[in-house]
Request: fold
Amino acid sequence: MAASDVGAPHKGAKIFVTGHRGMVGSALLRRLQAGGYTQVITRTHAELDLVDQRSVHAFLAEEQPDYIFIAAAKVGGIQANNTYRADFIYQNLMIAANLVHGAHLAGVQRLMFLASSCIYPRDAAQPITEDALLTGALEATNEPYAIAKIAGVKLAECYNRQHGRQYVSVMPTNLYGPNDNYDLATSHVLPALIRKAHEAKQRGDKQLVVWGSGTPRREFLYVDDLADACVHLFEHSYDGPLVNIGCGQDVTIRQLAEVVKEVVGCPAEIVFDTSKPDGTPRKQLDVTRLASLGWRARTPLRDGIARAYAAAPFHTDNHRAST
Ligand code: GFB
Reply:
């Protein structure tokens, strides 16, 4: 494993952040700008379709970035993953392959590929260490997404082995924060619960409907903490094996719903819709490797939820500000 200040990037390095309008990419952008990086480049989907090999390769050959953060992905919650299975596997495979191979062709020596904790086996021992990858069957609801992300991790690894590249993969846990997706049909659980609690409070509903049994456990990391961890690895020129990025603590979905209710100030009673899937019973990341590299999460869950709620597009203050 390598983490050193040797060859640490200079503030004028040309850094390409993919997916900068999404939750993760926008957090990376904020963090890099706050860190004084002066040449961060971005492209909207309309300007550059990352699924299109020819465009991506031409763009990278022309721009010659020093570093790429691969934060772009087709993402969604349990229902979106399970429903749009073809979109999830195809788009994520293409994004990873086009960017990794295109980076290599353009002579880009270093990049970071962001995978996800759901690529570990469904029944991995907890907390999940990095070496659990590919040791068992995947969770069915997100298998297409997981297969594509595993391919991305392996692509990076293969270009390192065959071509001496320094392509790093990180494994974030479940994320939340500003610019999250609040569409109830496609979102992850945390934004969904924030929105449901907000609307239940406004309407004076008696019940707050939570999917599944409430017993699955999930670990949640505030997205600005994730961005900070990624930039920490980048600044220390980390070029070792896969690194989990999490906070090291998990909660049940029921506990999460209780915290969200309190933060939002929603008095409704929690009820469970067990016709919806639970997904993986538990996926807590072991963050020993990340801690040994000198980083730990800072934002407590309750504070992060309060910040996410304050930034949500439907929050009263934001609504007033935008009308
Ligand atoms: O966040 P989530 O959609 O995805 O769901 P996963 C987590 C848990 O929360 C499941 C429950 O047990 C859901 O049934 N849940 C309760 C809800 N209420 C709700 C709700 O209103 N909306 C949603 N969405 N869930 C995803 C993967 O898995 O995690 C992706 O499918 C990705 O591939 C992502 O890896 C991080 O944590 O189960």
Summary: Confidence is low (pLDDT under 50) at residues 1-6. Residues 77-79, 81, 116, 118, 141-142, 145, 174, 187-189, 192, 210-212, 216, 218, 253, 276-280 surround GFB (CB under 6 Å). Residues 85-105 form the longest helix (21 residues). The radius of gyration is 19 Å.
